[in-house]
Amino acid sequence: MTDVCRKTVVLGVTGCIAAYKSAEIVRGLQKAEVRVKVVMTEHACEFVGPTTFRALTREPVAVRLFDEPGDPIHHISLAQEADAMLIAPCTANVLAKLACGIADDLLTTTALALTAPLIIAPAMNVHMYDNPATRNNMGVLHTRGAHFIEAGDGYLACGDVGKGRLADVDEIVRQTLDVLGVKRDLEGRSIMVTAGPTVEAIDPVRFISNHSSGKMGYAIARAAARRGADVTLVSGPTALDAPDGVRMVPVQSAREMLAEAEEAFTDCDIAVFAAAVSDMRPKNPAGRKLKKGVSDSELASIELVENPDILATLGASKAHQVVVGFAAETNDVIENAQAKLHRKNADMIVANDVGSDVGFGTDDNKVWLVEEAGIIDVPRMSKPELADIILDNAIRRLSE
What is the mean pLDDT of each run of 10 residues along the chain (400 residues)? Predict the structure, then answer.
C-alpha cells in the first residue's frame, strides 16, 4: 500500500505494567497496513524502552516535548498526521489529565491538539477503575466523543481480581480499525494469490521469462491480509519485499508454481491467479552453460514444450472457490478476456492492455473486470487501490 493510501495511528503508551502489550498492538495494526507512530510518557519508559517501538515501527519514538529538534511544535505535527490516536494502555492519571485538558507532556499535548478520533484503552487497579473520579473522567471524555475500549476482568498485576486489565490486543486492534474505517471483511477466509513471472531455464545462466514485476499480485495479497484473510502468496522471482502477515512461497518455474498453487487451492475461498506464467519452456535445459563457439548448434535451436496451464488446471477442479484470472492483452482485450473466462472456468478475469503505458512494471493500472454477468470498466488507478476493487468483487461472488 502506498503511503498516500495508508492510515496513520499515533499510539500513546503510558506508565503501566501492560505497556509491553503495546508492542503487540503495533504489530496488529501493521498487519492491517496501518502506519504507527509511538508517543510515550516518561513513566512508560520504566516498563518498555523506546528502542523497542523504534525497531517495530521504523519511526522515531517521542517521549519529551522537544525530542524532535527539527520540529519545535512536535505535538502539533503528530496530531495533524494522525487519522486516529490510540492510548493503550491508558493509566488513571493520564485519563484524568485528558478529562481536565491538562497538557504537561508530549502525549497529553498531542491529545489536546488532536482533531482526529481519540481511542482510549484504560488499564489500572480494579479499585482505581471503579473509583467515582475515574468513572466521571471516562464519562466526560465519552461525551466529548472519545471511543473507549473497556477494560477486562481477571487477575491483575497487583494481585487483586476484578476489572482493570487492558483489553485483549486483538479487540483493541479490531476496534481501532473500525474507527479508522479499515475493512476486515475477510476474517476467517483463506486466499491464495499467484504473482510475478515464472522462469524457465535454458541453461544455468539463461532462461525464458517475461516483464512481470509482481506488483499487482503483491498488492492483492497485501490488501487481503489487511482485510483479515489468511493469505498464501505463491510468487515467482521479483524484487519486491514479502507483504506483512502473508505466507510467502517462492518458486521459479511454472511447474513449481502449479505444485504449490494446487496445495494452497484446496482449502482457499478465493484464488487469484495474477502471475504471468511462461507458456513454454525448453524441453531439455542444459546442465552447463552453453558457450558461443562451443555449443552453437544447441544455442541455434532450442526445442520448446508447453507449460501446464495453472489457471485452467485449477479452474477445472474448483468446488467452492471463487477463481480470478488475469488477461494481459495487446489487442481485442475484452473479447480475449471473455473467451478466457469460459475456457479457463474462471469466475472473473481482470483484463488489461499491456501495450499501453500501464500494466507490467508500473505502479498503476487500467483494467476491465470481465464476468459472465457483464463487464466493469475500472478507471486507471494505483495497484493498491485496484487490489481492493478486485477483492470487493470476489467477495461479492462468495455470497452468491
Answer: 68 94 93 91 93 93 72 76 95 96 93 95 91 95 94 74 85 92 88 96 88 93 91 96 90 96 96 94 85 71 91 94 91 91 95 73 88 93 92 88
What is the fold, at CATH topology level, of the domain defined by 8-180? Rossmann fold (3.40.50)
308 annotated as ligand-binding: yes
Catalytic sites, residue numbers: 158
Would the annotation count 326 as a binding residue? yes
Annotated domain spans of the chain = 8-180, 190-398
DSSP output for 237-270: S-SPPPPTTEEEEE--SHHHHHHHHHHHHTT-SE
Q: Is 332 annotated as a binding residue?
A: no
Residue linked to cell 503505458? 357
Within 13 Å of residue 141, how many CA atoms lie on the same side as its CB?
30
* Length of the chain, in residues: 400
Distance of CA 314 to the CA centre of its chain: 26
Q: Which CATH class is domain 190-398?
A: alpha beta
Are 8-180 and 190-398 the same fold in CATH?
yes
Enter the C-alpha cell of residue 103: 497538557
Instruction: With H, G, I as helix, E, B as strand and everything else as coil, classify residue 333.
Output: helix
Helix (H) / strand (E) element for 299: namely helix 296-300
Annotated binding residue 311: yes
Predicted local distance difference test score (pLDDT) of residue 359: 60
340 is in an annotated binding site: yes
Distance between CA 388 and CA 110 in Å, rounded? 32
- Distance CA(375)–CA(392), nearest Å, equals 15
